[in-house]
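Hi both,

Apologies for the delay on this - the queue was longer than expected. I finally got the 2-acetamido-2-deoxy-beta-D-glucopyranose-bound model through. Below you'll find the protein sequence and the ligand SMILES exactly as submitted, and right after that the structure tokens for the full complex including the ligand.
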Amino acid sequence: MADDLCFFTKDSFVFKAPKKSPLVLRMIVLVFAMVCGVYICSICLKQISTTATAGFLNVELTERPCEKPNIEPSEVRYVHFPKPISYSRAECACNPVRYFAILSTQRSGSGWFETLLNSHINISSNGEIFSVKVRRSNISSITETLDKIYNLDWLSSASKNECTAAVGLKWMLNQGLMQNHKEIVEYFNTRGVSLIFLFRRNLLRRMISMLANSYDREAKQLNGTHKSHVHSPREAEILAQYKPSINATLLIRDLKQVEDTVAKALQYFNSTRHTIFYYEDVIKNRTKLVDVLNFLKVPQRDLRSRQVKIHKGSLSEQVENWDEVLKTLKGTQYESFLHADYQI
Ligand SMILES: *[C@@H]1O[C@H](CO)[C@@H](O)[C@H](O)[C@H]1NC(C)=O
Ligand SMILES: *[C@@H]1O[C@H](CO)[C@@H](O)[C@H](O)[C@H]1NC(C)=O
Ligand SMILES: *[C@@H]1O[C@H](CO)[C@@H](O)[C@H](O)[C@H]1NC(C)=O
Ligand SMILES: *[C@@H]1O[C@H](CO)[C@@H](O)[C@H](O)[C@H]1NC(C)=O
Ligand SMILES: *[C@@H]1O[C@H](CO)[C@@H](O)[C@H](O)[C@H]1NC(C)=O
Ligand SMILES: *[C@@H]1O[C@H](CO)[C@@H](O)[C@H](O)[C@H]1NC(C)=O
């Protein structure tokens, strides 16, 4: 037994000897772990202290309300100081922002009009947001989308590095606007949104543009790509080569339908702060843009667009069955559409 024990101790001694160096190793690992722990703790503390100060700063910012600019009392509801969730407005935080929406119909120059507005450093118009169906599927997704835009949380190519003074979108009448007009008017009035209606006077020209555009959607005349707007005279020339044929039987009915929709929209949204512009007027007289900027209460600036008009010149050159169209509209309330009303 003693022998056994002795053997055991001897044995253990024999085993322990080589364990001496792992002990040192263990100590090194322990010290290393401690150093790591202290390092991680110090980083955590640092982060906690920075978020704490950031939170403190935020509280300080939100607690100090921005001074309302010196404006008439009736204007106050149209002036906003949005606080985006996705970033800080920093030095722009107290720059007042106006909310707007461009209400229009397809092929009425609103794309061109919007590029003009977006050339202003303080205007951000986010495009046809409601062309995407889910965003207009019901009033709650509509208001949710609008909230995000007007809170400056909608990031698009129209977002500006400069201080935004007017933010909005382009909205076609057939994109949920007419169906949900009651709730949308209420939203516009409670949130203080100003409306710019942009319509086309010559609905026959608009119809030609619609037909040509839908033809190009299939034909893709520009090297296999479909373009609704172009930036070079050569591209415009290629697209204008196509002459649509207009269904004379449906012509009057179709023109009337558009006219009625426009009249109805003006009636529905009559209680909002709004203004009406016509594409032809802006084309003929660029000074009209001064009125647009005044309406949005943003500083006057030169506005530019790189877009080139596709259909120009005489209408009779642009329609395949011109004689038929002429015969159909002569003597009707739409006869004036037959005459070229502007030249470029
Ligand atoms: C509204 O539409 C969105 C998106 O289609 C959907 O997720 C949501 O459930 C709908 N809400 C109501 C109240 O119908
Ligand atoms: C327009 O943007 C500039 C540059 O950020 C800014 O200095 C100016 O105050 C802005 N104007 C308005 C009316 O917000
Ligand atoms: C089509 O592609 C050719 C060759 O790349 C180019 O020279 C021409 O300008 C393009 N045309 C248009 C309308 O973009
Ligand atoms: C015009 O439209 C009517 C009604 O949809 C249709 O019956 C007729 O075939 C069309 N005419 C032409 C030339 O396409
Ligand atoms: C809008 O309201 C004004 C004043 O109430 C009225 O004179 C005008 O005719 C209305 N316009 C439409 C299109 O309903
Ligand atoms: C052009 O538009 C401006 C601003 O609306 C207006 O004052 C001016 O009279 C217009 N000029 C012409 C020639 O119509």
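Main takeaway for now: The chain has one domain: 75-338.

I'll put the files on the shared drive as well.

H.
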